[in-house]
Design goal:
3-stranded antiparallel sheet, 5-stranded parallel sheet, 492 residues, alpha/beta
Length: 492
């Protein structure tokens, strides 16, 4: 306890017991940070941008768990976890960055040629105040004491399990895969690591990704692959997604930890392929002949006085057509142009003209009729995007849209993955909201995996998730390796 309070040791091993003792729920560090985060929240909670980030976080958690679960305690636990994870990423890279804003926004990593590992997200609300910046600096110093080059397992999973109550996690359908099992499954499922693309569509904290990357690097070393190319090639072969906003951030850092042996000799920039996305694509709506990604916009804080255009259900929304979503490079260019265009106060017509040029240059061809319609749809979305920026509720939309579009990209064509591996969500039917129960029943019956009668309330998401993952992302003759409940052997 005294060591945690006074930092007597300047070098700590990154084993699970030490990580839990120094940064877990009962650590001095967490109790100090928790108290300061609560005080900081009281100062910032009415700021429209800060409030929006918490609302989006709460909406995503409701999507994950099928019901309302958000609370002040969980918000502060998640904020602490994310800050620690990003500090670990900084330490893994051996970077001496001391600017909390550059750390949490990912600017420090982008400058070093590492993209996608750290981004500005829901949890950088902390550095909206100088006291929050000072707090992040203290956490940075604490984390740097660990000898992170020695990591051999998913230590961030250990930290998450320490902070979130076990009974609460199981009630929410969260079951974690032990490292030994994830390692064994990856070795058996991925027969040709240097050739096969591997996707974990419910990656959680990144345990399967960690072992898939380490498996790839071991094979690359045995095959005498150029050391400069090993990290880049690993990122081209292993990808993950999850709808849990904290799990994704942790999984990105876990991916970076797995790459650690190959990072010193890498050549060029890297992009960590782990995304905040709904693998079941429940946020994807069929629209006439195509698909579009729909993102609901939470209302402003009570008493804010702002109001904007609403859809037929009284909710604001941002729609992104499949034409853009299925091409990540094009989508990112379009989103960035909308962001900079809004800052320059461009009109819808100007944005559509700019998007037209981007599509022409991207494909080096004339714009098709389908692309023209998609540009008009995105122009309509820009109007809402632009208004949100003027209202001070804009900073997180590019992050949300870019991430949530990735499942469409991975499911385009005949599917992306040769191997789909992981531990799907086991959220029980009885814990779902009425709306999710209705949607689940329809989809499960459509896929012929719904169990009715006396077992109806014993349904969970795992079977439906498995068949949709195979259908959407797995290439022909591919392999799927999932951790499933015993019921998979005994029910329909």
């Amino acid at each position: 306890w005294l060591d945690g309070a006074l930092a007597l040791k300047s070098s700590l091993p990154p084993d699970p017991l030490t990580v839990r003792a120094e940064l877990g729920h009962d650590s001095v560090a967490f109790h100090l940070v928790d108290g300061r985060l609560r005080a900081l929240w009281e100062k910032l909670k009415l700021h429209p941008d800060v409030s929006l980030k918490r609302q989006l976080w709460a909406d995503l958690l409701k999507h994950v768990y099928g019901r309302e679960v958000e609370s002040d305690g969980l918000w502060f636990q998640h904020s602490f976890l994310v800050i620690v994870a990003k500090c670990i990423a900084l330490a893994v890279m051996g970077m001496r960055e001391d600017n909390p804003k550059r750390l949490l926004s990912g600017e420090a990593f982008a400058s070093a040629g590492i993209h996608g590992a750290v981004e500005s997200d829901f949890f950088d609300w902390v550095v909206a105040d100088p006291e929050g910046e000072a707090l992040v600096r203290r956490i940075m110093a604490h984390v740097r004491r660990f000898r992170l080059a020695e990591i051999k397992s998913d230590v961030l999973k250990v930290l998450y399990e320490s902070l979130i109550d076990r009974a609460e996690r199981h009630g929410l359908g969260e079951y974690y895969t032990p490292d030994w099992l994830a390692s064994k499954m990856v070795r058996h499922a991925v027969e040709r690591p240097l050739e096969q693309r591997v996707l974990d569509p419910a990656c959680g904290s990144g345990t399967f990704l960690f072992h898939a990357v380490r498996n790839f690097l071991a094979e690359a070393e045995g095959a005498d692959m150029d050391p400069k190319m090993r990290a880049v090639e690993a990122c081209a072969h292993m990808a993950g997604m999850d709808i849990h906003p904290v799990a994704v951030i942790i999984a990105r850092v876990t991916y970076l930890l797995a790459l650690a042996p190959a990072l010193p000799k890498r050549s060029g920039s890297l992009s960590i392929p782990v995304y905040l996305g709904d693998a079941m694509q429940l946020s994807i709506s069929e629209f006439m002949a195509g698909k579009e990604l729909t993102i609901r916009v939470p209302p402003p804080p009570a008493g804010d006085g702002r109001s904007g255009e609403k859809d037929v259900n009284g909710r604001e929304q941002l729609d992104f057509p499949e034409t853009f979503c299925r091409d990540p490079a094009l989508f990112d260019k379009a989103i960035e142009r909308m962001r900079t265009g809004s800052q320059a106060d461009m009109t819808r017509a100007q944005i559509e003209a700019a998007l037209h040029r981007i599509v022409e240059q991207h494909y080096r061809a004339d714009v098709t009729r389908e692309q023209e319609l998609a540009i008009r749809d995105l122009g309509k979305t820009y109007l809402t995007f632009h208004r949100l920026r003027r209202e001070g509720r804009d900073t997180v939309w590019a992050y949300v849209a870019r991430n949530l579009s990735r499942p469409l990209a991975y499911s385009a064509g005949d599917g992306w993955a040769h191997v789909v591996v992981g531990n799907p969500p086991w959220l029980a039917f009885r814990h779902m909201s009425a709306d999710l129960q209705k949607r689940f029943r329809e989809l499960a019956k459509g896929e012929k995996v719904y169990v009715g009668g006396k077992f109806a309330t014993q349904n969970d998401l795992s079977a439906l998730f498995t068949v949709r993952a195979a259908h959407l992302y797995l290439r022909s003759a591919g392999r799927i390796a999932f951790v499933l409940p015993m019921a998979a052997l005994t029910r329909g």
